[in-house]
Write the structure tokens for this entry.
Amino acid sequence: MNGMDTDPKQLEDARGRLISELREHALVIGTVTLTSGARAEYYVDAKRAILRPGGFAALGTLVAGQVAEWGGTAVGGMTMGADPVACAGLAGGAQAKGFFVRKDAKAHGLQRRVEGPPLDDDDRCVVVEDVVTTGGSTLAAIAALQEEGRAICGVISVLDRLAGGGEAIEAAAGAPYRALTTIDEIYPDRPDRERTS
């Protein structure tokens, strides 16, 4: 473990604040095309919430707590979606290196695909993402780390749209997957929600 104490009450308060921030600032009602190509009647632009002081602070507490619980020593993922999540974790006190995975290796400079402090063979990577639908970008980040021989100890998303991506992510990573929130919590009355009797 990396030694960070996480108070369950503090984590629950942070989670409540994150849900509130996502509801207020990130939920967009209207037809959009998702990264996967699927169309939806709503969109969660998590960056609208997590790049505000309240959302960023709440996210930082949650990510740092989960990184500590898993004994992570590095936190990051596919650039853009993962960038604010990893930075929030570091700002929240995670005793870990930050890293970003490029879609493609740079053609100049050090020609690296995984940017940030060099990752060592004994690093335990926590992969992060803002929103997971099918999990495509998270799966690409996992594959890039595995190609470099890096160990993955867990995967975190800010929000899971509950479209099956979580299961694929957990299988690919060979490690636990944790969504900090789900679409059920952010938009419980959405038209496509499966109802159980």
Remarks:
- The domain at 8-186 is CATH 3.40.50.2020 (Rossmann fold).
- Residues 60 and 89 are 4 Å apart (CA to CA).
- The mean pLDDT is 92.
